[in-house]
Design goal:
The complex is a heterodimer of chains A (186) and B (161). Chain A has 186 residues and is mainly α. Chain A has one domain. Chain A is built from 7 helices and no strands. In chain A, helix 3 packs antiparallel against helix 4, helix 3 packs across helix 5 and helix 3 packs across helix 7. The radius of gyration of chain A is 22 Å and the shape is elongated. With 161 residues, chain B is mainly alpha-helical. Chain B has one domain. Helix content of chain B is 83%, strand content 4%. Chain B contains 4 helices and 2 strands. A two-stranded antiparallel sheet of chain B has the order 1-2. In chain B, helix 1 runs antiparallel to helix 2. Chain B starts with a helix and ends with a strand. Classes of the chains: A mainly alpha (186), B mainly alpha (161). Chains A and B meet through helix 5 and helix 7 of A and helix 2, strand 1, helix 3 and strand 2 of B.
Amino acid sequence: MAEKSTFARLLRWTTILAALCGFVSTLSFATGAEIAIRYLNPVFGACWDRNEFTIMACSASALGMIVAIRAGARVIEPSSGRRAAIVVALAVAVVLLVPVADAVAKLGRMGWNADGGTIERWLTTLLDYEVGTLLDKVVIAGVYFFKMTAFAMLAGLGALSASAVVCSVAGSLRSETAVARSSANE
Amino acid sequence: MFSIRIVILFIHVAAVIVALGGSLFSTFALTPILARELEPAIRIKVVRRVIRTLGAIVLSALGILVVTGFGNLLYYGAVTLTLALKLMLVVVVILLALFQYANLGMRIYRLSAAGPNPELASMLARFRRIGIINGTLVLAIVYLSLTLTRETSQVVLMPMR
């Protein structure tokens, strides 16, 4: 029971970590916060500037896939290797993280991206021009992040389907081996 | 004649044929015939094997559909309202298929190990109902996909930059 709760806690913290990394990198990407980091620590600021988009895309992919795997796993029967299916799906997600991040970064650029005059006008009217423009950039980056996450959720569900098959086949092989062994013993 | 785009599309369509064809054959041909022709004890043995094998085939096909779907989306290059609706339906179909085979199917498989059981009838009926719902949703997805490729005046929310 304690082991199960540790696993659940690990999953929850991985989800929170991915969301947090995504939040920070998206905010930094939108507001150009790397300049402030460069001011404090030039080497780290330069490194952050080079990698913040990659971190944002990887966080969105990880978050989408983990959320989809956790949600999808709820419909799997607990006693039929749900946990094994989650573990295999997470392993597949880790292996596919970089290709999925690359794909969702491209897919996220398609479709509505909040980059219109309406939101910007509304924000600059509601607040003053500088704050409104800054918030508009945050909204655009936020929408992009959510779209990447949504596309990654599809990848997560695909990984879970494949892992459910793997666990089912492995389970049936195990049970058949056990049946063969017990009949041989008899 | 041979391009990566066509190969991806071919695998995508083939996976749909396998998943949908398998489900429809099992629901409308195999199950009624088994009910008519076989004794309950033997029928249960066959049905539990069919559910397990079909589950592996359908869930694998769905995994392949997601991978090739990503490829198709990258080549398609735009997100339309039709595509957004299709993707939402895909999520529902995958979740329903997971419930059908990895939950209900597994329970039927386990319960039927000891032979016929009175609880099995209702579970099999539910399994069949979910199969029909999922099949209908997949057909709707196929229709939306055809609309995507044939529609000339589709509402493109914004083309790829």
